[in-house]
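Suppose a classmate hands you a notebook page containing two proteins, each written out with its sequence and a corresponding row of structure tokens. How would you begin to make sense of it? This section walks through that situation. The first entry is reproduced here exactly as it would appear on such a page.
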Amino acid sequence: MDEIWSFICKKNKNVKPGDPLEYGDCWTYIALKSESGLIVSSASGKHTEQTCKIIFDNLYYAFDLPFPDNKFIFFTDKNIQYEDIIKETYSESCMAYGRIIKTKKENKVIEIKFETVFGSTVGYKISTSVVEGYNNKMRQKITFFVRKTAAFSKSKQSFIARINIFKFANNFIDLKMERIGLKTIKMRTPAMIEGIADHAWTWKEFLTCNAVKAY
């Protein structure tokens, strides 16, 4: 899990009294399955626990509950919002949670620490590199993440709509290589890997289908 941010309509320094509450910074929290690259939940809003909690509410209803012998494994950055919300959502005995803490100086990473918050992460590499890679992909493909004034979304509704289109394209349209060792096995979408779809969707299917359900 990780966050990426941009602005709605204007930067914080230009927000005036009386402007809509959504103006200024808008953060998007992203949760994905590292094995397949499937984006399983996202939430956009201010950098608050309320926005962060939406991700876990979505996960709670989308997946079967974890058990001590079938745990959920969470890896995040150092954002402390995650810890309390994870505890509120699931039993600690059914989870393992680790986070990566990066120390920066003059915009350069000078130290990286790996911390197990609760549960056992033995046998797992604590890492957020996969979701960070997807955040970089979002910056390349969604103009308002470039943070140039002309590209800022004019409303939270349109902001979220573009995030949702990106999520669908990533999960159902974009093909990814699956590898065992150095050998390429096949090209499949994250939804195909997870057994949600039986083929790679096309944009024509997406634009003409009137029965797409929220995922």
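The notebook's second entry, a different protein, reads as follows.
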Amino acid sequence: MIINSKFNKGFTLIELLASIIVLIVVGSVITGIISSSLRGSNKANTIENIRQNGNYTLNQMSKDIEYALPFDGKNTGFSNSSTPTVYDTSCLFALGPTPTPITPYTFITVESANNKITQYNCASSPPVLTAGGIPLIDSTVSLLSCFFNCIQDKATDAPRIKISFSIGPKNPNGLMEKITTPIAFETSVTLRNYKK
């Protein structure tokens, strides 16, 4: 008896299952590679966004404070008010061989050459760094800490203002890759036109 061989062509159930399993494994590997590269790209973009925001804010504040005419004072703020009414215009004197503890301030006010008074404020909760009520940091990132210090070596020296803040991602628990530590920004600025 002769069997027609054209009816014996095709795949068995085991061959179909084996090919499906191979396709699933290859698809999982490709999906993992694409997902990993997208997460890495997202993390790099987030870090770059934080750095751009921090550098812009630090440069803007440094320039405004450095070329300010008078130093109008600093304040730690009040718990019942978002804007202080009284500013302390004297800075801490750094006398003696042991450093004096520095008080962090949440408000600082300077006056520019065109008589524009700017109040830098980071006293709100959650902290928002503002200049005259306008936020300096983009809403896509989160300000985690912020303070100012003021030091003078002698009464005749110009005040030296220290600006310090840290920024992190807006939503570290969401889809955005979590950054383990926030990025800190810090500088010290001496008023050039003090009492001129």
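A careful reader of the second entry would note: The beta strands are 71-75, 92-93, 107-111, 117-121, 130-131, 134-135, 141-152, 160-169, 183-190.
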